[in-house]
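Because showing beats explaining, we think one record worth quoting, sequence and backbone structure tokens together, and here it is:
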Amino acid sequence: MHLPSRAVVAAALPLLASLALLPLSAETAPRPPARASLQNPDFERAVSGHHWMPAGWDTSRADLPTVFFGRDSFLVHSGKFAVSVANMSNAFPMGHNWNQTRLVGPELWGKRATFRVWARNNGVEGRAYLLIQAYHDTASRMGVIWNVDHDEALKRLGINKIDDPLMDLAWKRTQFSEPLTEWVPREASIVVPHGTNVLFVRCGLFGTGQVLFDDASLTFSSAPPAPRAERGVNLFADPGFEEGALAWDLSVPPYEGARLDLDSTVAHGGRHSVRLSNFWDGVVETRMGVGQPFPGRALRGQRVRVSAWLKADSLRTVAYTKIYAHGMKTRVTQSPSSAPVSGNDDWREVSTFLDVPEDAEMVWAHVITLAPSEGRVWIDDAKFEVSGPAGGATKAVKPAPAPKPAPKAGSR
């Protein structure tokens, strides 16, 4: 083999150096990895040694013998496999789901993320759903990188559970309640907020029956600027629960027997309300009720108001409305609670206000009660609206103390 002389090499060096400074063409430029795309979206690959478990996917944890997660080879949309969630009991209300956690970088901030799945309902009583969530969650992100669970990642990071700085920045749930369907395409989408470092996608069941999923995808596209919300327009979807409350996120603690139902016998307006009942059997105090999330960018610098008509029966705690705004700088900003409803209170409208911070990425509007407690609550004719520009601190409304428990009459 004939090697070039040193003189030839020396003459070529300036040319090679100049070529190194030229920009790479679209064909040769390295592309950033698609870190947020789904693993095993068609569920065809199984985890080694676990035929029923699709690679890349995880399941929610309930430790209940009535819940079954499977990899189905009989009812499929395409290929050889689909996945299913089946539940035989509503004794403990929970959302059982298949899920993935995907890493997100700044290159996807401001993009529209769309989660699509083909779904098939088989004897569903309740609601099946898709859910996409954007979080700033360091522990979950490092858990994916280290291939450990969230708790182990917290331990390695030296963060106590109570101090976990995770924050949800965008959230969209699509729900469908038909008892029986063929394969139907479903989707849920969000705009990925600045500061997001992980996306969670979930497909599952809240209720009983079986729902199957196949051929999932997670895609990104350009998002138009968020339109400013108009003053005085009710931003809630299905504010009177006449369309089945499928537009609402339900918050039901996993207390045995706790119920959140549509009620067609008691209503403030229209034909339906939402009834909260039987939520006394719990140890940890939490909140129970309904809410909807809204993109914060459309509400920045404005004063928003949430109101609802509430009715209470023998309620030993309080029910009220509340607003939360989430942002990377201000973290969580919350309104005061509205005037409370408790005891035996007939239909009464309650409301509260919040000045939305300039960094808000998501705003939650809630109608809730504290649990555990005895009694029942009805919710109807809710409204969430812009009432004008932000005007300084909102005057706090002090909640009335809960009534003292009455003597128990018989068993519960």
Notes: The CA atoms of residues 310 and 353 lie 17 Å apart. The domain at 249-389 is CATH 2.60.120.260 (Jelly Rolls). Helices lie at 6-21, 138-146, 150-157.
